[in-house]
Automatic annotation (TrEMBL):
Region of interest called Disordered, as start-end residue ranges on this chain: 236-255
Signal peptide: none
Limits of the GerMN domain: 146-236
Protein name: Unannotated protein
Pfam families membership: Germane, Gmad1, LpqB_N
Organism: freshwater metagenome
Length: 511
């Protein structure tokens, strides 16, 4: 075999995790085998890589798609990033062997699709009222998925998410044994004895994190939490804890019975089985004609902007009127956050927070490129992250920032916005389709606008099509995506097909 064929064989075999990459190690010298540490991370490339041999060195070059860190966190590469690697080879008994390889793994997107699964470890928002997913890429083979997930959970959140979340695990509490076996559907998590010093609320919190994290593992029906092999008492739940325990901390965060809302010229209507009906209060009685609406998480308040740029807010109840909050022709894209305040984009001032009493304050976005402007900002329903539509020159893109609050009711900053995909060249509107995925109305290169679903764990982009001339989008966990069309119809995605649902504009789900 030539030196290039040896390197290609090593790269192909690297995607197999059997026996700690036993097949790939056959291409290495004894010294290189001792030094190579595949667990340090993964460089991911797309398309076909190129190999070039120069004497005792072979170089690899490809278009970089992203990086998977040692803890499974995926970072999307900037468009145009090139991945390069160099392999030093020697002759060993007349055959080529790799004597020095780049650290970690070099895998294609297809390799990653076959060898990894996107799962999440769960932490809490700062108020400990809802869980927050921290997406990770987990190898299909190697240590069991349950073991890997719990090790990541105990180690804490990824560096990017760390400032926005909290953990229920007390300091010093870790795994008592370095594995999480799954026996007859029960995942057994044995923790260090210090956990017995934890109070009831801490025991409940760490249980919630463990159950939500482990319920993703195929075959897990219950979670048993022990310390030194003895059951850990946790108030409010059976032992072992069923996988559907703790529904109250669902990161999706919508109450049962939630549905979509649509603006019409004469009223706002709520979608219901078989049709729609006007909402109660001023919004449903035609007090204001809205061009853009937002609905609170509990579906008890509505807000909207009229054609003159005035921002209104009001309760959804019999005889309850809408109240004018701000009058400014430059306002756009209202959305409720978890606290009940409104996020609105002012073309002059940027992103602002409007409280129920009408007071306003700026939301600072830290880390954008010079002259980049926020066109819309949608907080996740867990309140820790914000999906941003950002314009830089003629191009609009999707970024994800973490939300940092200066205490209850304090100022809000969106920090360290990062790219979560590298395919879209235009982004018009977005909605959180789940706690770890975002629906986007956008386009690729010169293509038409359509709907895409972005998996935040791996930056993958799934095209879902669109009705003709789409204008806006709404999404929510477990509910069909909605698209407002230029033809005055709202369309619903059911069974992979876009169908007209009702007349109106600006579809919205509770947030």
């Amino acid at each position: 075999m030539t030196s290039s064929e040896i390197v290609q064989g090593f790269l192909d075999a690297s995607a197999s995790f059997d026996g700690d990459h036993a097949v790939a190690r056959q291409y290495l010298t004894d010294e290189a085998n001792r030094l190579w540490e595949p667990s340090t991370g993964v460089a991911v490339y797309e398309g076909a890589g190129e190999l070039a041999a120069y004497g005792y060195e072979v170089t690899f070059k490809a278009s970089e798609a992203g990086r998977i860190s040692a803890i499974g966190h995926y970072d999307v590469a900037a468009p145009g990033t090139e991945l390069k690697g160099a392999f030093a080879l020697v002759r060993d008994q007349g055959e080529w062997r790799i004597d020095r390889a780049p650290p970690g793994l070099i895998l294609s997107l297809a390799d990653v699709d076959r060898s990894f699964r996107s799962l999440s470890v769960y932490f809490f928002d700062p108020t400990f009222s809802t869980l927050v997913p921290d997406p990770r890429m987990i190898p299909v083979l190697g240590p069991g998925q349950a073991t890997t997930l719990v090790k990541y959970l105990v180690a804490g959140p990824s560096e990017w998410l760390l400032p926005a979340v909290r953990t229920g695990f007390p300091n010093g509490v870790g795994l008592g044994i370095e594995s999480v076996p799954v026996v007859s559907g029960v995942a057994v998590v044995d923790l260090t004895p210090d956990v017995r010093l934890a109070g009831d609320s801490a025991r409940q919190a760490l249980s919630q994190q463990l159950v939500w994290t482990l319920r993703q593992v195929p075959g897990v029906s219950d979670v048993s939490i022990t310390a030194l092999g003895q059951p850990l008492s946790v108030p409010g739940v059976a032992a072992p804890q069923p996988r559907d325990s703790w529904p109250g901390v669902d990161p999706g965060g919508l109450p049962p019975g939630s549905s979509g809302f649509v603006a019409r010229s004469e009223s706002v209507v709520r979608l219901a089985a078989g049709g729609s009906k006007p909402v109660l209060g001023g919004a449903g009685e035609g007090q204001v004609s809205f061009v853009d609406i937002a609905v609170s998480r509990a579906s008890d308040f509505i807000a909207g902007i009229d054609a003159q740029g005035t921002l209104w807010r009001g309760p959804l109840g019999p005889g309850r009127p809408m109240t004018e909050l701000l009058s400014d022709a430059n306002l756009a894209h209202p959305v409720f956050d978890r606290s009940g305040a409104l996020w609105v984009v002012d073309a002059d001032e940027g992103l602002i927070l409007v409280r129920p009493d009408g007071t306003r304050t700026s939301i600072r976005v830290s880390g954008l490129e010079p002259r980049a402007r926020v066109r819309s900002a949608t907080p996740s329903r867990d309140g820790t992250r914000a999906a941003l539509v950002v314009q830089s020159g003629p191009r609009t893109s999707l970024l994800l920032g973490r939300i940092v609050r200066a205490g209850p009711g304090g100022d809000i900053t969106i920090d360290d916005p990062v790219k979560v995909e590298s395919k879209l060249t235009e982004v018009v509107d977005i909605g959180w389709s789940d706690a770890d995925s975002i629906a986007v109305l956008g386009s690729v290169e010169a293509g038409s606008l359509e709907v895409f679903d972005i998996d935040l764990a791996r930056g993958s982009v799934a095209a879902l099509g669109a009705p003709e001339a789409p204008v806006s989008i709404a999404a929510a966990p477990g509910l069909p995506m909605l698209v407002g069309g230029a033809d005055g119809q709202v369309y619903e995605l059911t069974g992979g097909t876009w169908r007209a649902r009702t007349n109106g504009t600006s579809p919205a789900y509770p947030n």
